[in-house]
Amino acid sequence: MSILLVMALALLIGVVCGLRSFTGPALVCWGAHLGWLNLAGSRLSFLAHVASLVVLSVLAVAELVADKLPKIPRRTSAGPLIWRILMGGLCAAAIGIAGNGPFVTCCIFGGVGGFIGAFAGYGARHVATAAGTLRDFPVAIIEDLIAIGGGLFLVTRL
What we know:
Layout: H1 3-19, H2 23-33, H3 50-66, H4 78-98, H5 103-130, H6 136-155
Helix pairs in contact: 1-4, 1-5, 1-6, 2-3, 2-6, 4-5, 5-6
C-alpha cells in the first residue's frame, strides 16, 4: 500500500471523528479486533481488546443518541473540537501503524481531518436545516450514516 493512500485514509478517518467523535475510535477497535487493522505489538494494540471495543462501541452509540438532543454543545466549541482532533489523531495513528505509514504524519493528518470534519459537518447540517425545508433529526441521521459507513469503508481498506 502506498504511503499517500495511507495518509489519505488517515485524513479521512479524522474527518469521521470530526463528524462523530466516538464513531471513528469504535470502528478502529472493530477493525483491529476483526483483524482488518493489524496493531499487534504496537502502542495501540489495546484497541484490539474486547474491553476497548465494548467501551468505545457503547460511547459511540450514546453519542449517536445524544447528538439528537437540543442541549448538546456545538462540536465546533473548544472542548468538543479538541476532543475530535485528538480522536482523529488517535484513529489515524492506528491507520498509519496498520498501513506502515509515517506515524507522526498520520497523527497530524488525522487531527486535521478531525478539524475539517467538525466544521464541515456542522456547516452542512446548518445549511441543510437553515431554510426550514429539512428538519434536524433526518439530517443528523444522514450524517450518522455517512460517519458509520465511511468509517467502516476506511477501516476495511488495509
